[in-house]
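TA notes, week 10

Several of you asked for a full example with nothing omitted. So below is the full record: structure tokens for the whole chain, then the designed sequence directly under it. When grading your own attempts, check the secondary structure regions first.
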């Protein structure tokens, strides 16, 4: 059913009840591909959501793997609902936007039991029409992403997806929110960097982030922090947030504390995220206090695990921004309005 072909709920229900049952294989990859094509025709300014309902393993594994990679690079939120005993939990986790986007039920009759929880989650994730999830705020948000040899090309891809997804919390269109990205290894990669305020479209921002190249090399974290401290054009009157992602000990550790302190002295709140071989004590040399809110250490995992802390980080960032600007509890200021595109499979 084309997404635009229904004017009201009753008409949609009537047509849904007339959808015939067609047996065959479980071509989940093909279904997700078609759903993404349908959502691409939707309104660019509203969130896009897929609910996948299935009772078994996909039979088009290669197509599914390719489609999962495409979807992870998009801004589409994907919820998976597994029904019965033959589901593959790992497959549902891979498809879903995050592991807490996965639901399981005993049988199809039991789906109604998760309706309230699922609808509540969907509505909460959908963004307001005119503002980001944090509400009508102004912020300068800078990412620094490690592109050294220890990260690997695959994990650098996960890091780019993470940056794209976190940035989607904010509304870039008005210019009130400025987002920048810098990658580094032995040197900072200023030629491919996104400067604060350089892009005002979420789609253009994601495209630019995904075009950033993996370089390999050493981990010169102090050099990257010093570069941002010296060269960033932070606005004086707005909150300044820096999100730093790394997986190891910097070779220039001697200059890291001073470089981080220079940023904090300028009023920059620093969130340090360490993955795999990162050292928690070194993250605390970079992060703002309190460390429990600003130093996030994911022990013994690869970069795919970074997505698991995305929601937690978004709440912490919004909390910092709102505390700086209003002193209010963010739970009382986040908008409850929503508008979204939704696709079922």
């Amino acid at each position: 059913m084309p997404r635009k072909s229904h004017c009201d709920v009753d008409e949609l229900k009537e047509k849904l009840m007339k959808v015939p049952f067609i047996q065959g294989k479980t071509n989940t990859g093909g279904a997700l591909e078609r759903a993404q094509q349908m959502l691409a025709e939707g309104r660019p300014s509203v969130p896009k959501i897929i609910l996948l309902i299935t009772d078994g393993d996909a039979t088009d594994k290669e197509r599914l793997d390719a489609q999962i990679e495409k979807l992870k690079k998009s801004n589409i939120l994907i919820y998976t609902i597994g029904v019965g005993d033959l589901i593959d939990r790992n497959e549902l986790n891979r498809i879903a936007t995050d592991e807490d986007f996965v639901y399981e039920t005993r049988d199809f009759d039991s789906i109604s039991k998760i309706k309230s929880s699922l609808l509540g989650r969907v509505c909460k994730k959908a963004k307001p029409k005119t503002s980001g999830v944090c509400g009508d705020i102004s912020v300068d948000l800078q990412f620094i992403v490690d592109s050294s040899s220890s990260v690997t090309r695959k994990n650098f891809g996960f890091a780019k997806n993470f940056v794209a997804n976190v940035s989607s919390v904010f509304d870039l269109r008005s210019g009130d929110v400025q987002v920048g990205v810098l990658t580094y290894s032995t040197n900072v990669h200023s030629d491919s960097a996104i400067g604060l305020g350089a892009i005002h479209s979420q789609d253009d921002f994601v495209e630019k982030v995904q075009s950033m190249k993996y370089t390999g090399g050493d981990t010169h974290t102090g050099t990257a922090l010093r570069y941002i401290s010296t060269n960033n054009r932070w606005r004086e009157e707005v909150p300044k947030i820096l999100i730093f992602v790394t997986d190891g000990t910097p070779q220039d550790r001697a200059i890291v504390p001073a470089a981080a302190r220079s940023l904090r002295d300028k009023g920059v709140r620093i969130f340090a995220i360490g993955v795999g071989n990162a050292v928690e004590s070194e993250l605390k040399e970079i992060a703002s206090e309190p460390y429990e809110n600003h130093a996030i250490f994911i022990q013994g995992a690869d970069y795919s695990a970074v997505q698991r802390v995305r929601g937690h980080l978004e709440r912490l960032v919004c909390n910092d921004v709102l505390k700086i600007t209003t002193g209010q509890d963010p739970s009382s200021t986040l908008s409850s309005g929503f508008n979204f595109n939704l696709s079922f499979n």
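Residues 298 and 305 are 8 Å apart (CA to CA). Use that as a sanity check on your answer.
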